Predict the 3D structure of the following.
Amino acid sequence: MPELPDIELYRSCLAKRITGQPLSQVKVLRPFFLRTFDPPVDALAGRTVESIGRLGKRIVLEFGGGLFAVIHLMIAGRLRWQEKPINAGKIGLATITFPNGHLGITEASSRKRASLHVVQGRDAVSALDPGGLDLFTATPEAFAEVLRSENRTLKRALTNPRKFDGIGNAYSDEILFAARLSPVRLTSSLSDEEVERLRTSAVETLKEWTDRLRVEFADAFPGPGDVTAFRPDFAVHGRFGMPCRVCGLPVQRIQYAENKTNYCAVCQNEGRLLADRALSRLLRSDWPKTIEAMLGDSG
């Protein structure tokens, strides 16, 4: 799922291309993609894009007359921009035409989750806001209060859109690695120093990657493969079995349902391995408890 740095990248790239441009035409190619009917999507035609905003993991296009188009890409949704008409084939959800180019919205998944809402007025936009805390404007006290409002694992707390704004599976792994905290630590167990370390790591990690992506795509619109949860410069996410760039030992992984959590046992969990539900049930007493035991067994 595109997360805060990816959505900010899309936002800045779109702002350069369509701010001040009148929308010529909208073609919704898959009926399920459009989740509203009043105002009709055709009401956007002829209206000028006044601004491009972000609402959590949603992209918000503001048009004249107080109309808004709110795009949620979910997991597999992506944007494409080109000067010639776009033919996205079976994965195309919609195309939006401007005088200077075409914006295509695609979803490369059999589970169609992406959505478009066309709404009137800022109150209607606010109603779509999951309410997560904006880490860039939040005080340390506000961050601590939200984090401790429920006793959850850090991984689950960080990825809850009703608690924190724009963080998903990939960047939560990177934030927790930077903070040197286990993904399964409970929020109630953190000291004040650890809470502040987590907040600082979250802000710095999201800002670093937002800035890096903006520089990388300063002169180009990102292609579908450029918005990804698997970046080669990540510290742990997507690097299962590869050496940790700090301690050199293999990055570990646990999996629950569709979600995979990557972490370093040494840097984040005092050398202890976290129990993967499937493997630990299969191996039972043979499941190694520490990274040393695992490496010893494999040697």
User: Anything to note?
Assistant: The radius of gyration is 21 Å.
